[in-house]
Specification:
By secondary structure, the protein is of the alpha+beta class. It has three domains: about 40 residues, no CATH class; about 200 residues, Alpha-Beta Complex (3-hydroxy-3-methylglutaryl-coenzyme A Reductase, Chain A, domain 2), CATH 3.90.770; about 100 residues, 2-Layer Sandwich (Alpha-Beta Plaits), CATH 3.30.70. It is about 45% helix and about 20% strand. It has 13 helices and ten strands. It has a four-stranded antiparallel β-sheet. Strands 5-6-4-7 form a four-stranded antiparallel β-sheet. A two-stranded antiparallel ribbon has the order 1-2. Helix 4 crosses helix 13, helix 9 crosses helix 10 and helix 10 packs across helix 13. The N and C termini lie far apart (about 55 Å).
Length: about 375
């Protein structure tokens, strides 16, 4: 009988691992060759990135055209296996150029680290105790991070909440950390771990989780674009009809979470593709985006808004958390990711986040235009 409890698999050489896979799965030589192909990475690099590595699984890499963001043109690499995503983004960006392209902004690169305290005797009093020790907490969190501090980053603020749970009230302290051009998960979690014991001693509680939050409400990226009604007409619908159809589709997503989930998934088709191409954590971005869509008042709804201006043109906006980095992680070691970032020409993580937000808005426009006119299958554009 085949057994999966293989002792010391991670210690074995690449050839030994492939031999085990071939025997266990009855794989042909061509199948093993496909598994062991590491593309732009060496096997040693792959083996250092994840455990029990056996190869890599490349995704198609395309380039979205026509993007102008804050007056600057970009060629945008997108890694995705889904047809029409690159074409849709390129077509939408071309239409947006008629009114100047996309304008963007962002909040500071601030991430939140959470420290969970349980079995706290006086939760409300403990909350105030934590706030009273703000300066001491910040100093303790920033110890050991001189490079981040010199660059203007570091722990900047502290707050605390009493959270009522099925296990009783918990006190949750938040560290607000300016991560500069790093995504920040590691440094924020490290800071949370550093301050945990002190918080426990002050509050009389027991420290449990100390970790970054992916609901990055202080690290938002925003984009806006105007789509001239004459530029977005189709063979079957006038510009006015397309505008009206998109507004109706947006209203549906705002009112119904079943529709909003698919609406936002379409946004993330574009967002994820750029995030993956740039070697960033697309899972963190996905989690943050969907949590943000549910966290705001009104329940889970659209990450975009669509309006008609006085001239009858369509105005779209998007706002979502964008926890991205240009230093550390895969971005620093993956040769394709490094080349993609260089192609983008972004200088800061905030600029990267704003470009990604513009792609998300473009993707949403393209999907809504197709749905509101010809249907999502027939309405797939060519990559102009």
């Amino acid at each position: 009988m085949k057994r999966s409890d293989i002792i010391g698999f991670y210690k074995k050489s690449a050839d030994e691992r492939w031999r085990i896979l071939r025997e266990f799965g009855g794989l042909a030589g061509a199948e093993i060759a496909a598994l062991c192909d590491t593309g732009a990475l060496s096997f040693r690099q792959v083996d250092r990135m994840i455990e029990n590595a056996v190869g890599s699984m490349p995704l198609p890499l395309g380039v979205a055209l026509n993007f102008r963001v804050n007056g600057k043109d970009y060629l945008i690499p997108m890694a995705t296996e889904e047809p029409s995503v690159v074409a849709a983004a390129s077509t939408a960006a071309k239409m947006a150029r008629e009114r100047g392209g996309f304008t963007t902004s962002s909040s500071g690169p601030v991430m939140i680290g959470q420290v969970q305290l349980v079995d706290v005797p006086d939760p409300q009093a403990a909350r105030l105790t934590i706030l009273r020790h703000r300066e001491e907490i910040l100093a303790l969190a920033n110890e050991g991070h001189p490079t981040l501090i010199r660059s203007g980053g570091g722990a900047k603020d502290v707050d605390a909440r009493v959270v009522h749970t099925a296990q009783g009230p918990m006190v949750v302290a938040h560290l607000h950390v300016d991560c500069r051009d790093a995504m920040g998960a590691n440094v924020v979690s490290t800071m949370a771990e550093a301050v945990g014991p002190r918080l426990a001693s002050w509050t009389g509680g027991r420290v449990y989780l100390r970790v970054v939050s992916n609901l990055a409400v202080e690290r938002l990226a925003r984009a806006r674009a105007t789509f001239a009604k004459d530029a977005i007409q189709t063979d079957r619908a006038s510009g006015e009809e397309v505008v009206k159809g998109i507004l109706e589709a947006f209203a549906f997503a705002e009112a119904d979470p079943f529709r909003a989930a698919t609406h936002n998934k379409g946004i993330m088709n574009g967002v994820d593709a750029v995030v993956v191409a740039a070697g960033n954590d697309w899972r963190a971005v996905e989690a943050g985006a969907h949590a943000y869509a549910a966290w705001r008042p009104g329940g889970y709804r659209s990450l975009t808004t669509w309006e008609r201006d006085a001239e009858g043109d369509l105005i779209g906006t998007i706002e979502l958390p964008m926890a991205l980095g240009l230093v550390g992680g895969v971005t620093a070691v993956h040769p394709t990711a490094k080349a993609n970032v260089r192609l983008l020409g972004v200088k800061t993580a905030q600029e990267l986040g704003e470009v990604v937000a513009a792609v998300g808005l473009a993707q949403n426009f393209a999907a809504l235009r197709a749905l509101a006119t010809e249907g999502i299958q027939e309405g797939t554009p060519s990559p102009e």
